[in-house]
Give the backbone structure.
Amino acid sequence: MSTTPQAALTQRLRAALAACGLPPERGDVVAAADTRFGDYQANAAMVLAKEAKRNPRELAAQIAEQFDGGDLCAKPEIAGPGFLNFRLEPGWVSRRVGILSADARCGVPEAEERLKIIVDFSSPNIAKPMHVGHIRSTILGDALSRIARFLGHEVVTDNHLGDWGTQFGKVLYGWKHLLDRAALERDPVAEMTRLYREVNAIEQTDPAVHKAAREELVKLQQGDPENRAIWQQLVDLSWAEFEEIYGQLGIRFDERLGESFYDPALAALVEKLLADGVAEISEGAVCVFFRDVPALADKPCLVRKSDGGFLYATTDLATIEYREERWEPDAIWYVTGAPQQLHFQQVFSAARRMGYGTKLEHIAFGSILGEDHKLMKTRSGDNVPLRALLDEAVTRARAMIEEKNPEMPEEEKKHIARVVGLGAVKYAELSQHRMTDYVFSWSKMLSLQGNTAPYLQNAYVRVRSIFRKLGTELGAAENISLTEPAELALAKKLLQFGEVVPTVLHEFRPNLLANYLFETANAFHAFYEACPVLKAEGPARHSRLVLCDTTARVLRQGLELLGVEVPERM
RNA sequence: GCUCCCGUAGCUCAGGGGAUAGAGCAGCGGAUUUCUAAUCCGUUGGUCGGAAGUUCGAAUCUUCCCGGGAGCGCCA
């Protein structure tokens, strides 16, 4: 089971084109823009007619004449300037739903070429709380990784922690002079943040402290055992908190090679860049110039400061070097915000200059805005801590359940609140085009109406409710017969799952999958209103049960690819 | 100054060469002895920021302009 309607139609259209003496590879078929015209459409006649200087409608007629739809569809209709419109046969759709219902992959074909992909995402900073700024990277990166894996690619997820850098001088100084042990035990990351801020404030007025903090940093970098041990504690305590959040979100990483991991390689890397003529010394710093790239002509990439220190770009290049040696990947995906576009342009250009041909992708995304349309912040102007945000999501979902189903057992309420609340936050991210700055709204993401996680989860729950009432699970899915418009509309949607999932990776767009799932849930709800299932009899009842079960499986699989769980009841 | 991203219904957003531009919310009008109405059906609402261009065809591609956001050698 890997043939989608689109693939089947494309194959047949190509045969028709070949029979007309036209280039078969031009026979692309796409889902119809408007279902009034049919289920699928081909624009090939218009394109080819222009090239051949022929009348498009005549050419369309000729193609239609040669088109053999078999039991898949009848002769295509010709409309407008030369559209070919295809309508799937209900019998064929019914049979395909039967096959789909037994397919573990829900009709999603595996990628033709199995790629090795490293996905670099989340990357929070040690000694600082994770905040909303990390949420998009984390959720997007996880969803893209899941989808790539499902399509058969070999994926390595790597959390490139911010565990090295100038901030540690301040934290180390604070740790030694201002540490509140009790506070550290209560909330380690909060205490680290306090230390950083406090030292940062004192530094402004006390040059001696500024100097001392710098010295702590230098000692750390030189491998001083005491500072190294404190640093390790900072990392461990921070990671423990991050892991709690990742656990809650159901996200795991194959690797967590932070910036510190690459530090030992930086000096040699810069020397190599100089020796190879990739970089040059300018104003005391080591830079890579891109004089041949107009957009970067006046924007060199610094890899070593005039004081000998290394930079963000240096670490990123060392990271590429390491990943190349260890994994020889086909692609590396960086899921980080749009403001870093210039940085990645530079790093990618430098990597090519170093001779690496790996496909490097910066998967950029926009910002999250508050209700005031400005960058989302707390009232005091700080970043919103991620943990508090996730807790609130669960609390709000809990309140909804409490209102709707107060009699539900405590254990189940808790579970559902988590699944619905966290699902809502994730889905709100993923249903949005990644480049848009979007406005964070609790009421919208938790609404049962519209393109939201609860709406989709509810569709799943409705199906499960039917099977609970039925008392048994489904037997063999044979002799499916779908005739009602609402049945067929839903069935055709389900068959498109295998068409949609692969497109997500073309431009890294999980929102395409989200849109599809929303349309599917919508089609299901409409079917649910129009077609009784348990009250139906004979073949209709059986067919509808299969349709329901397949809907549930597609919704569950689709949401799982987005990292969203489904409850059995809500 | 240079570069990148965004501008679509009152609001939040889809659609990124194809037909009469869609959805949710809000508004208006309906459907409930329920397989969970936590839903569904109907309806009002748009010079797709503006102007040129490419094309049989442009919200979509190109250029310029306007408006908003961001980034641009020694932070990450």
